[in-house]
Amino acid sequence: MEKSSKITKEMAVNEIIKKYPKTVFVFMDYGLHCAGCPMAQNETIEEAAKLHQMDLEKLLKDLNKAAEE
């Protein structure tokens, strides 16, 4: 994967799902079932992790792994 296409904490949830559809399964595994909800679509990964008290670095690692597949 190119460095420019890496998922970062500043990216919005909906942006990631559109660009890397397989990441939806990571969001579901983390209990972020609202990933497709209109209220959460513009939420960044950092905001979602903070709101749901998740390990941001682990979430990013798992999202990037799914995006590479």
Descriptive notes:
This protein is mainly α. The chain has a single domain, classed as SP0561-like (Orthogonal Bundle). Helix content is 49%, strand content 0%. It has 4 helices and no strands. Helix 2 runs antiparallel to helix 4. The protein is globular, with a radius of gyration of 11 Å. The mean pLDDT is 87.
**Uncertain runs:** none
Q: What is the CATH-assigned architecture? A: Orthogonal Bundle
From the spread of the alpha carbons, the general shape counts as globular
The N- to C-terminal Cα distance equals 9 Å
Helices, by number, come to 4
Count every beta strand, where a strand is a DSSP E run of 2 or more residues: 0
Estimated structural class: mainly alpha
Global mean pLDDT: 87
Question: What's the level 1 CATH class?
Answer: Mainly Alpha
When the domains are counted, the total is: 1
Outline:
The protein has about 70 residues and is an all-alpha fold.
Keyphrases for this structure?
single chain, 69 residues, mainly alpha, SP0561-like, 49% helix, globular
List strands and helices in order, with pairings.
Blueprint (H helix, E strand, L loop, with lengths): L12 H7 L3 H7 L15 H7 L4 H13 L1
Helix pairs in contact: 2-4
